[in-house]
Write the structure tokens for this entry.
Amino acid sequence: MSFLFIISNSQGHFYSKQKDWTDGKQLHNIYRAKHYDEALNTLLELNAKNIDLRAQVLESEIDERGEPVVIISDFPLPVSQDTEPAIGDDGQPEDNDEVSEQALPDQATA
């Protein structure tokens, strides 16, 4: 059976063609290389950008459609660094999970 090389991080996510991480549900998005040294060069570039990255090049078998055979990660995907948090009127990031002070009723002092 044929194989190719993919990059996986310590949480089981796979480097994608869009230059971010995917959990493996969409096989066509996973970055793949025909040669080990090509995948290793990509991994070295990733490590240069993020020295805390714990990733490795894996040899993956391919299925009849030419897609890598992978195990889908149970860990949630990391938040994209491209996504900017919403900024409120006070200049602070908005957090929709908390109740704002304005939404609380005034407390009467006795």
Q: What stands out?
A: Strands lie at 3-9, 14-15, 21-22, 55-61. Residues 94 and 100 are 10 Å apart (CA to CA). The radius of gyration is 21 Å.
